[in-house]
Amino acid sequence: MQQLNGFRVVITGKGGVGKTTLTSCLSRLLGQRGIKVLAADEDPQMNLPYALGMPPQQAAAIVPLSQNPDYIEEKTGARPGKSFGALFRLNPVVDDVVERFGVRIDDHLDLLVMGTVVQAAAGCLCSENVLLDSVLNYLALRNEEAILLDTQAGVEHFGRALAKGFSQCLVVSDLSFNALAVARHAAELARQLGIARIHLVVNRYRDEAKDKLQRFAEATGTDTAQLFDVIHTLPGEPRFEELEPDVTRILGQDSAYVTGLQALADDMVAFEKQRQEQSVTASVSEESAT
Ligand SMILES: Nc1ncnc2c1ncn2[C@@H]1O[C@H](COP(=O)(O)OP(=O)(O)OP(=O)(O)O)[C@@H](O)[C@H]1O
Ligand SMILES: [Mg+2]
Fold first, then answer.
1. How confident is the model over 91-109, as pLDDT tens digits?
2. Which positions fall inside the CobQ/CobB/MinD/ParA nucleotide binding domain (predicted)?
3. How far apart are CA 203 and CA 223, in angstroms?
4. 20 to 30 A from 203, CA-CA: which of 18, 23, 109, 169?
């Protein structure tokens, strides 16, 4: 059977809509399917380690990558804070980053806490940004590997050179007007960045709220079909309250949330397979044309 090429997925959306819950559960689910996942936390709140079930003491001791000046200097040639006017390597090779700074959760899952760079100006070209950019966009992925990036709330950070290597974006929203407005903005940015598959994941979905999406689209003139390639729904899961912070334990239970997650994972994997087939076909026809 043909192996799946490595792929990258970014998860975004308004504050509190369920991004970290989704990232952690999906990371474990893909791991159970044999995909080796690197779950990357780009939120300064650093909630992902807890959501993945890491013991709180261990989670609290994690130093984010952006706060490792020695590593940043080793790779980029410039020490954070002292890089003004310095020359540094723009595309450092960071293939040892998971081995050195990743936290092993299980055989199929590693966690990397990125930290966020405080920027003096948008797109600032400081050594911390260069390093994070290399890790996210250029870290070599083998077959059957995936990076899932959990981001902080909102879209302000999204334009940074974040998503060059990302093929899929999961825009998470509930059915509130404000969350949908952020989702719309995120989808527009993701499109501009050239991300190939943009999913809307409606979390805490209720059947009786079915037309809310429709009403939002009408009120704002949003063409949902144009913005999103696919819409998924995940229902409210009352057990999260008692499972917190290790919400991934829901995977062992009979839950409509997990059923929704399975469908989302199926879609993501099917898309990557299709992309792969298309690129094989394209290179074959290129070869036969020469
Ligand atoms: N489908 C759901 N049903 C019930 N509760 C949920 C669901 N999804 C997420 N939650 C709960 O909602 C809260 C916020 O979820 P989460 O932390 O994943 O959101 P977030 O988007 O990552 O937030 P932030 O923007 O602060 O990072 C958590 O208490 C989580 O357990
Ligand atoms: Mg979060």
1. 888 999 999 999 999 999 9
2. 9-230
3. 20
4. 109
Question: Could you tell me if the CB of 153 is within 6 A of ligand 1?
Answer: yes
Query: Is residue 160 one of the residues assigned to a domain?
Result: yes
- Of 127, 268, 77, 143, which is closest to residue 135 (Cα–Cα)? 127
- Measured in degrees and rounded to the nearest 5, phi and psi for residue 5 equal -65, 155
- CATH number of the domain bearing residue 109: 3.40.50.300
251's CB contacts (< 8 A; 6+ apart) are: 25, 28, 29, 32, 258
Rounded (10°) angle between helices 177-192 and 210-220: 60
Nearest protein CA to atom 9 of ligand 1, as residue: 18
What are the C-alpha distances in Å from 7 to residues 56, 183, 256?
30, 22, 26
What is the distance in angstroms between the CA of the first residue and the CA of the last residue of the chain? 29
Q: For 50-84, what is each residue's pLDDT tens digit?
A: 999 999 999 999 999 989 999 999 999 888 876 55
Characterize 162-196 residue by residue with b for buried, 16 or more Cβ atoms within 10 angstroms of its Cβ, and e for exposed. bbebbbbbbbbbbbeeebbebbbbbbebbbebebe
Counting the structural domains of the chain, the total is 1
Amino acid, single-letter form, for residue 260: G
- For residues 35 and 38, give the distance between their C-alpha atoms in angstroms, rounded to a whole number: 10
Taking the CA of residue 150 as reference, the ligand 1 atom at the shortest distance is 22
- Name residue, tokens 């890790």: 135
Burial of 69 (0-12, 13-18, 19+ CB in 10 A): middle
Determine whether the shortest distance from the Cβ of 243 to ligand 1 is under 6 A.
no
Ligand 2 centre to CA of 139 (Å) is 23
In a domain, 135, yes or no: yes
